[in-house]
Amino acid sequence: MPRTKVVIVGAAGETGTSITNGLLERATEFDITALARPSSVDKPENKLLADRGVKVMPAELFGSQEKLVKLLTGVDVVIAALGWMNQLDQIPLVTAAKAAGVRRFVPCGFITVAPPKGVMWLREQKEEVYNHIRKLYLPYTFIDVGFWYQFATPKLASGRIDYAFMNPGANVFVGDGNAPSAITDLRDIGRYVARIILDPRTLNKMVFAYNELLTQEQIFHLLEKLSGESVEKQRASATQIHVQVKAAREAIEKEPLQLSNVMQVSAAEYFLSWGLRGDNTPEYAKYLGYLTSKELYPDFEQIKYVDYLKEVLGGKAKPIYANLKLG
């Protein structure tokens, strides 16, 4: 069978790297091209991609539409994995993909399950892209993955696992800590994507790919049990979360291009969505119309959360966002 031609935008980022790795694990099935800004093509991370067999091509999403269409002509699948600040950069990419006859577009989803509007600013940004895809009648698959293990894991007071870059807000204990939330190892995302984009059942569908369903109480308890240390709970009531969300929304409405505002509103609304409302569950995903990875791929061999924690505690976990300071 001919290999599926895949173009990835954002292949060198955290999610993009996982996706690239997942496709490269099945290299005989995929022909992979990464699009990068012309100024970034020669950066070490893109040279590493090239060394691994990925074709790296320069592209400007807001440049010539004709050139973008030419790059995408003959491509089976386009996957976008862009940062929080750049979600709407996908709009010209979607338009070009339609003109080029791309057979499946996977936009930058890859977050927790949430309703389309009214709860998460970040979700609303992504939904603008989704609407543009549907408006153009472009074949798609929308993929969400829950919260990463790497973000769901709190810090220990000793600092011994700080090296792995835990989420600085992961010690915030939302409400009573008993809301179930789906979590996934970052490394498994790409392995899910590799299966999803070859699966005819997922065309023009939403897919929720996740590993485990745990509460914060369970996560904190498991880390304490394995580490032999206590984990600080920075308790946040529903009232406190709603106050944070209101302030964050006001800030981002005034300055939507300010990174600190994007991070503030995203953090507050994640707490609201998965912590208070309980949105990030397979049950709610099914209600919204998602297929789930558990139904589609019961044979998927996921990385267990307990095994991830053992890696972290053993000093063997790979740091994420090593060059980014969030607090």
UniProtKB/TrEMBL annotation:
Gene3D superfamilies: NAD(P)-binding Rossmann-like Domain, UDP-galactose 4-epimerase, domain 1. It holds the Pfam family NmrA. It comes from the Eukaryota. Keywords: NADP, Oxidoreductase. GO terms for molecular function: oxidoreductase activity. InterPro entries: NAD(P)-bd_dom_sf, NmrA-like, NmrA/Isoflavone_reductase-like, PCBER-like. Residues 4-251 form the NmrA-like domain. This is NmrA-like domain-containing protein. It comes from Akanthomyces muscarius (Entomopathogenic fungus).
